[in-house]
Design a protein that fits this description.
Layout: E1 3-7, E2 16-19, E3 32-37, E4 40-46, E5 62-63, E6 66-67, H1 76-88, H2 93-100, E7 108-109, E8 112-115, H3 117-122, H4 128-137, E9 143-144, H5 145-148, H6 154-163, E10 167-170, E11 173-174, E12 181-188, H7 197-208, E13 214-215, H8 216-221, H9 226-234, E14 238-245, H10 249-252, H11 268-283, E15 287-293, H12 299-312, E16 316-320, H13 328-338, E17 342-345, H14 351-362, E18 368-371, E19 383-388, H15 406-417, E20 420-425, H16 430-437, E21 442-446, E22 457-462, H17 463-470, H18 478-490, E23 493-497, E24 506-509, E25 526-528, E26 533-535, E27 542-544, E28 557-560, H19 564-574, E29 580-583, H20 593-602, E30 608-611, E31 624-629, H21 643-655, E32 666-671, H22 677-683, H23 687-701, E33 708-716, H24 719-733, E34 740-753, E35 756-765, H25 768-780, H26 783-786, E36 789-793
This protein binds adenosine-5'-diphosphate and zinc ion (ZN).
Adenosine-5'-diphosphate (ADP) binds near residues 264, 297, 299 and 300.
């Protein structure tokens, strides 16, 4: 029997075995195939001959339906990477695969029901649900089964009706094997013709000048109608055929500016770093380098030069960035430098554009790919360089299945390809610096800014003193207000950061101490004044801001805490002349909104930018001379072992936005905990000092990167149910001599989320593979719990 292993994009299942029926060739590894699964037909990817597995009785093996590709759809190296992901992150083979597939690569069946002659005859005798279904189908049009099955019991009714021959269920396929856009193109087929009338003369004239033909839509917009063309076709003078075209990736990228590169002479530190990096890139074997360069040290210039060198040597380049809308500059520079040979994947692209771009890369027409997390799977051939910019950034971790970390997958891709991997950051993650210290990564440092620009001078304002002097309602300290006024007078720019959005963070009843909570999640609702609503930041539930307490009906409601919306209002009140904008998830919902705001700020059209961590990313605004941080300690209260690391990174990064041009920069940091090590070290921009303190904490508490950790969250309808199921799994994990420890279960810090109760446990140890294996085995024994369990290997957040 000819068997093939197939990965299908269905949660939590491994590759499945299918039989290749007579008449079909054995599909090549990486080709898409159509397979039956339950009552559906799905697209999967062939993974080769299954590992000998005699357990599946041969009569249960189903037949492949069709093979969609003669050549591998996914290149072998990407397929291998995907298999690593599914193994390492303990998810299904097909789920991991879905991350690597371009849009429109899947074909799926839809189930349609249609009434039969028999059904029509018997319709009058039927009652209840059966009659309802038949009535809905009686107009003779097939209907989608999911639109019929609007309530319980309909599915079994449909099955019964089908069995009795009253209806027919078909499974037409949705989607096509090729999703390229085609246009109709007209070409001239006769050279000697006598066109009749002005329109025909013009049409022939234009087609004569275009031997490859002209898109009929373009002709139509030029005044040559379909009717004119048809007459020419009828006399045999013109032929019309379909041609595949690309949705122009550059036209669509118009929202991204192209930045011409200023020629610069590398500083000594840059030169040293570049020479080392280039030597490793030329070695043709795997090297992973942590490029630790302070903010403004000119890392982008190094990326560009390296990418250019590697590209010229005939190998491909991958550059991962946290989010293109937030840091358009890097992408724009790459586009300026590599023109058509670069593909830029950002969230503004449509599925069609993404599809075309993917195939352009797959055909080898692109040698540099710039993109976010998922670009790590781009089908670039012969990768020689993988760069991860701002490698510490949390957005590299996918917070849904497959929960992979783009940086870590990038390292593996480099390893499999024998490429140079460069992880760049001013504030490296604990993981990467730890790896560098252990000798697993090489470390290259740049300690000074370009042109010897000084780092911003940082001043800490102790808010306890501020409250003592000016009362408890102070939001902007006297020092920050005076500095903002000073910049306004000098026409210099300022950035004010508060990593919390909204107007007020809590609605509190002074009579009964009740606070307004989300009905679905265990968090309080945030007041958004502009839209006059209280909203949950986890599930988006919102309601009008109440005027009476829901608990005691008293009118004594008070709004406490503040977010960016309030800070913006305060600053506007103090500086009515200033041009101010706010950047947070509330103001940049619309696509392109953020790019617009940031470029206005860059062009000097704004004086003050207020925002959340979005404004702290790698921006390069040379006219910013002041950075204010409100409540620098916002994140420190979180029950998350990475809170200190995140705070340090955020503060260091935002302070690094000041003084990047010719003018000196200053940062003012307001906090209630001026002595906390994260805040102290950030203010001195002292990475080494921070790392020493933080690794000590991780060592004492046994947290990554000192050990490996898996976070598991079991969701259930009740709190007791979640705890009971989690307890069952934990029990199965403990057999006495295991090489890991299990902590918990306990209710998760976010004990309710989107209406579900959540219980959590951790597995900690030094041997990740055995931890993972034990957990997967425990969950496989309880498939019903497995479906409700989140498994997060190397978690970034443990809320
Ligand atoms: P980083 O990413 O390390 O924070 P950037 O790459 O954004 O820093 O560089 C900061 C600024 O310095 C940019 O405007 C860049 O064009 C400029 N720059 C980089 N290298 C040099 C150099 N050798 N001489 C002068 N300017 C430079
Ligand atoms: Zn909620």
């Amino acid at each position: 029997m000819r068997l093939v292993s197939v990965a299908v994009p269905v949660p939590a299942i491994d590759a499945l075995t299918y039989r290749v029926p007579d008449g079909l060739v054995i599909p090549v590894t990486g080709a898409r195939v159509l397979v039956p699964l339950g009552t559906r037909v799905l697209t999967g990817v062939a993974l080769g001959t299954p590992k000998v597995n005699s357990e599946t009785p041969s009569e249960q093996v189903k037949d492949l339906i069709d093979i969609l590709d003669e050549q591998p759809f996914l290149p072998a190296d990407v397929l291998r990477l995907v298999q690593w992901v599914s193994n390492y992150y303990a998810c299904g083979a097909g789920e991991a695969l879905a991350s690597a597939m371009p849009p429109r690569a899947w074909i799926e069946s839809e189930r349609h029901a249609r009434i039969t002659d028999l059904g029509r005859e018997r319709q009058a005798d039927e009652t209840g649900v059966r009659a309802e279904v038949l009535a809905k189908l009686s107009n003779d049009k097939p209907a989608r089964v999911d639109t019929l099955a609007t309530r319980k019991g309909v599915f079994s009714t449909l099955t019964a009706l089908e069995r009795e021959g009253l209806i027919e269920i078909t499974r037409p396929l949705k989607g096509t094997a090729s999703a390229f856009r085609t246009v109709r193109v007209a070409t001239l087929t006769l050279s000697e013709i006598a066109p009749r009338g002005a329109r025909q003369v013009e049409a022939v004239e234009r087609l004569r000048g275009a031997p490859l033909g002209i898109d009929t839509a373009a002709l139509a917009s030029g005044g040559i109608s379909a009717a004119t063309l048809k007459r020419l076709v009828d006399v045999g003078a013109v032929a019309i055929h379909r041609r595949t075209v690309e949705r122009d990736p550059f036209e669509q990228q118009a929202t991204l500016p192209v930045v011409a590169r200023k020629p610069v002479t590398l500083t000594d530190e840059q030169t040293n770093a570049f020479q080392q990096l280039r030597a490793w890139s030329e070695a043709g074997t795997f090297h992973c380098v942590l490029l630790h360069g302070v903010t403004g040290s000119g890392k982008t210039e190094l990326y560009l030069r390296l990418a250019d060198a590697v590209r010229r040597s005939g190998r491909g380049v991958l550059l991962l960035v946290p989010e293109i809308a937030l840091t358009p500059a890097v992408a724009a520079l790459f586009r300026g430098a590599f023109g058509e040979r670069v593909a830029i994947q950002h969230s503004g692209l449509s599925d069609g554009e993404r599809h075309d771009q993917w195939h352009r890369i797959r055909r080898g027409e692109v040698d540099v790919v710039v993109g976010t997390r998922s670009a790590v799977f781009a089908p670039v051939t012969n990768v020689g360089l993988v760069i991860v910019d701002e490698e510490h950034d949390g957005s590299y971790k996918q917070e849904e299945t497959p929960r992979y970390h783009g940086r870590d997958v990038a390292v593996v891709r480099g390893q499999q390809a024998g490429a140079l991997v460069v992880l760049g950051s001013a504030t490296p993650s604990m993981e990467s610096f730890h790896n560098a210290q252990k000798g697993r990564y090489r470390l290259v440092s740049i300690q000074r800014r370009v042109l010897d620009r000084p780092m911003a001078a940082v001043r800490i304002v102790d808010m306890r003193e501020e409250y003592a002097a000016n009362g408890p309602d102070v939001i902007l300290s006297a020092a920050l207000v005076s500095a903002l006024g000073d910049r306004a007078a000098k026409k210099e720019q300022s950035i004010v950061l508060l990593n919390r959005r909204g107007f007020a963070t809590v609605v509190f009843c002074r009579q009964c101490a009740h606070t307004l909570e989300c009905p679905n999640c265990s968090v309080s609702l945030t007041v958004h004044k502009a839209i006059r609503r209280a909203r949950c930041h986890y599930c988006n539930h919102s309601m009008t801001v109440p005027t009476r307490c829901a608990n005691c009906a008293g009118p004594y409601l008070e709004q406490l805490g503040f977010g960016t919306e309030r800070v913006e209002a305060e600053i506007r009140g103090l500086f009515p002349e200033a041009r101010i904008a706010r950047v947070d998830r509330d103001t940049v919902r619309r696509r392109g909104a953020i790019t617009g705001l940031l470029s206005r700020f860059a062009d000097g059209g704004l004086d003050i930018l207020v925002g959340t961590q979005m404004i702290a990313k790698g921006h390069d605004f040379p006219r910013v001379t002041l950075v204010g941080v409100i409540s620098a300690d916002v994140g420190l209260g979180m029950a998350d072992f990475r809170a200190g690391e995140r705070t340090f990174q955020l503060l260091t990064q935002v302070a690094g936005r000041a003084g990047r041009g010719d003018l000196l920069g200053e940062a003012i940091v307001q906090t209630l905990y001026p002595t906390h090590y994260s805040i102290r070290h950030a203010c001195r921009q002292d990475y080494a000092g921070f790392f020493a303190d933080e690794i000590d904490f991780r060592q004492r508490m046994k947290y990554p990167p000192v050990i490996a950790m898996i976070n598991a969250v079991v969701k259930a309808r009740t709190r007791e149910g979640a705890m009971a199921d989690a307890t069952d799994i934990v029990r199965a994990l403990r057999w006495g001599s295991e090489p890991y420890r299990v902590l918990g279960p306990a209710p998760a810090p976010l004990s309710r989320l989107k209406g579900e109760h959540r219980a959590q446990f951790f597995i900690k140890g030094s041997h990740r593979a055995s931890m993972r294996k034990a957990l997967v085995a425990a969950l496989e024994a309880r498939p019903e719990i497995r479906r409700r369990t989140i498994v997060d290997v190397d978690p970034m957040s443990v809320l």
